[in-house]
Amino acid sequence: MKALLLVLMLFASVQASARPPAPVASMPPAAPASQPVLQSQSQSQSQGQIESAAAVADPDFGIHANVLGLERRVEMLQWRKVNFPAPPHDEQAWIAGRVDANGLDAAHKNPDDLPFNGARWWSGAPKLDGHPVAASVLGALDAWAPLRPVLSQLPTNLAVSFQPDGDWLSTSQDPAHPQVGDVRVRWRVIEHASAPAGTTLIAGRWELPAATQPAPTTPTATSLPSSGIREWMRRLFGNYVVWLFVAGLVLALALLIWKRRR
User: Fold this and answer.
1) Alpha-carbon gap, residue 126 to 129, rounded angstroms
2) Rounded Cα–Cα distance for residues 170 and 181 (Å)
3) Residue (of 34, 205, 225, 210) closest to 132 by Cα position
């Protein structure tokens, strides 16, 4: 009788340990203190387009417009060494930067430097749905369109040095036959644009947060507690482990009783 009671107690203990724990309600984790606080969902999505509330100007040429961005591109006609098609030879090309004279013979030399460099300016007062826009948002825009300047906007010394050449202003006396050292300049603008994907209203300003990734973690070897071992065995063998365990106990008890009777 005592042996049967012992088997029943062991069976109840194993059955209880194999039974999955009841789900426990938990509160959602609190946001880290450093996480920016976003506006409400209705305000965090932009509805309009980014526009400039101030003029942007090229201080060297006097070009100005009420736009989000203004870009100046400068190219000079220069000699450069090319290897294709063979044989290697020198040719003329419009190039934004200065070509190094190394490798060029005395008959194919370039001026020492460009008189102007390319540059880009951004609006100091961009607005979207009545809120200011961060520089990171403007830097992600790519809605450039050509701007054909008016010579009367240029300072007098530059107005007499340049002449129209399509979308460019060129120092060449004959734009159809430019000479090495001639310079041409053109401008592009972004008048207005939709916000890039991911732009979010944070603390009253439109931002484009940098993407962050969690740091990789290195797994470490740890020993499982007894409850963890039972759970691992239950997942591995299912509920059959309970019956196998009970059957083993019954068999061991039967062998013990058989030995005592002998």
Assistant:
1) 10
2) 11
3) 205
pLDDT digits (tens, 9 = 90+) for 209-243: 876 323 443 333 333 333 333 443 444 444 444 45
**Rounded to the nearest 10 degrees, what angle do helices 240-261 and 2-18 cross at?**
160
Residues in the chain: 262
Give the tens place of pLDDT for each residue, 140-151.
999 999 999 888
Name beta bridge partners: 131.
Answer: 128
Tell me the domain boundaries of the chain: 49-207, 226-262
